[in-house]
TrEMBL record:
Gene3D superfamilies: 3.10.50.40, Tetratricopeptide repeat domain. The lineage of its organism: Eukaryota, Metazoa, Ecdysozoa, Arthropoda, Hexapoda. InterPro entries: FKBP4/5/8-like, PPIase_dom_sf, PPIase_FKBP_dom, TPR-like_helical_dom_sf, TPR_rpt. This is peptidylprolyl isomerase. Residues 405-416, 427-438 have a biased composition (Basic and acidic residues). Its EC number is 5.2.1.8. The keyword Repeat applies. TPR repeats lie at residues 300-333, 334-367. It catalyses: [protein]-peptidylproline (omega=180) = [protein]-peptidylproline (omega=0). It holds the Pfam family TPR_8. Transmembrane segments: none annotated. GO terms for molecular function: peptidyl-prolyl cis-trans isomerase activity. It comes from the Eukaryota. SUPFAM superfamilies: FKBP-like (SSF54534), TPR-like (SSF48452).
Length: 460
């Protein structure tokens, strides 16, 4: 086939000649991990590199500057299975510097490239391909929205090829659950640029999870697809640029919003919002006098409410940590002591829990809830002791049985002097090689007969 000029400036910097057509209509997009085989030669045919000679395909992230410009441009135009010759001008390859000793300065290069396969850009937090992005339209700026940004998006959701939602939505990033935006879309948006449009393949754990979405006919544990366009976004004001009073106001707003979500049982969103309170108030050096008191009061309230959220989600270690932070600010805070006691109970540590509940009772002797928790702790401890006693008794019984079996085995392994050949001497084994006496024949297991066979016992 005829060569095609792929260079953006149409300056013949990247020419492609297709040797073998690929399949389908799709081509890889920026960020995709592509897998290729290649053979690189100079214009005179000198080969300088080959993945085929190494018998190992080459993988790289497309469009991210991992390879020469000609490859980012050329491979992005290829279909799966396609083989093409890319002719790359120096400014799209190694330029004036070359790549000594194999590639000289200002060298035009030829690459035979076969596109074997590709996968989407992995945006998942654990890099397990649970959120994959395939860009359709590249964004136009260099800034990304972040947690707390107000985003305007258009999204189209699909399951098994069927559209289940198609809408515009505006929300605060991190609070998408409130408007029905799944976690996978929120996570991906933090890597979007303004104007970007991408396809997202999202595994169930970042979609509708084990609950599914019955109103959309989406079953539990279903993987879904979204086409998302980031129309616009507005970032939060940077904390470092705020005055202390502004930080206090922002923290108040987040605390009130978190409480609203907590009361409506939106626990996961409440956690995200309460965490922002600390973001505004963590740097305490510029808070003085009344502002410092207000700051400490807001931090105490946020940590207490976070502890409550974590108790509700059974994340007891995190709940305990939040209570610890409260007690650093207010060592006699009854709620912090009580909730830390609950966290200790959740972690099966009743001895630690009872100490916290007893501290509450020292501060509030008539606290019925704490008194009841002390009873629960004592019952828990009693059950643990009974269980341990039974466990140890069973262990000792087991050890005793094992010792008995070992002793019986040792006895079995000892020779039986009343049976077998022990003491049944042959002719050559008797003193003097004599024949057995009548007594020895009648008593073959008697060993200590004297040498002359007189029938007298020796050394008895």
């Amino acid at each position: 086939m005829a060569e095609i000029d792929l260079s953006p400036a149409q300056d013949k910097g990247v020419l492609k000649e297709i040797i073998k057509e690929g399949v389908g209509d799709e081509t890889p997009t920026t960020g995709c991990k592509v897998k290729v085989h290649y053979i690189g030669t100079l214009l005179d045919g000198t080969k300088f590199d080959s993945s085929r000679d190494k018998d190992k395909p080459f993988k790289f992230n497309l469009g991210t500057g991992n390879v020469i410009k000609a490859w980012d441009i050329g491979v992005a135009s290829m279909k799966k299975g396609e083989i093409a010759i890319l002719t790359c001008a120096p400014e799209y390859a190694y330029g004036k510097n070359g790549s000594p000793p194999l590639i000289p300065s200002d060298a035009t290069l030829k690459f035979e490239v076969e596109l074997l396969d590709w996968s989407g850009e992995d945006l998942s937090p654990n890099k397990d391909k649970s959120i994959e992005r395939f860009q359709i339209i590249v964004g136009e700026s260099y800034a990304n929205p972040e947690d707390g940004s107000i985003v305007k998006i258009h999204l189209v959701g699909k399951y098994n090829g069927e559209v289940f939602e198609d809408r515009d939505v505006e929300f605060t990033l991190g609070e998408g659950e409130i408007v029905g935006v799944v976690d996978g879309v929120e996570i991906a948006l933090q890597r979007f640029l303004k104007g970007e449009k991408s396809r997202l393949f999202i595994k169930s754990k970042y979609a509708f999870k084990s609950q599914g979405k019955p109103e959309y006919n989406i079953p539990p544990n279903a993987d879904i697809e979204y086409e998302v366009k980031l129309q616009d976004f507005e970032k939060e004001t940077s904390v470092w640029s705020m005055k202390p009073a502004e930080k206090i106001e922002q923290a108040k707003m987040q605390k009130e919003k978190g409480t609203k979500y907590l009361k409506s049982d939106r626990i996961n969103v409440a956690i995200k919002v309460y965490q922002k309170v600390s973001k505004y108030l963590n740097e305490g050096s510029d808070f003085t006098d009344d502002l410092k008191k207000e700051r400490d009061s807001l931090l105490v309230a946020a940590h207490l409410n976070l502890a409550l959220c974590y108790l509700k989600t059974n994340e007891n270690i995190l709940a305990k940590q939040e209570c610890d932070q409260v007690l650093e600010l207010d060592p006699k805070n009854e709620k912090a002591l009580f909730r830390r006691g609950q966290a200790h109970l959740g972690l099966a540590s009743p001895e630690l829990a009872i100490n916290d509940f007893q501290e509450v009772l020292k501060l509030q002797p008539n606290n019925t809830a704490a008194s009841n928790q002390v009873l629960i702790c004592n019952s828990f401890i009693k059950k643990q002791l009974t269980k341990e006693k039974k466990l140890y008794a069973n262990m000792f019984d087991k050890f005793a049985q094992e010792d008995k079996q070992k002793e019986e085995q040792k006895l079995k392994e000892q020779p039986d002097v009343m049976r077998g050949t022990l003491g049944e001497w042959g002719q050559e084994e008797r003193p003097g090689g004599r024949d057995a006496t009548a007594f020895e024949k009648e008593n073959p297991n008697i060993l200590m007969l004297n040498a002359n066979g007189s029938g007298e016992f020796k050394n008895m």
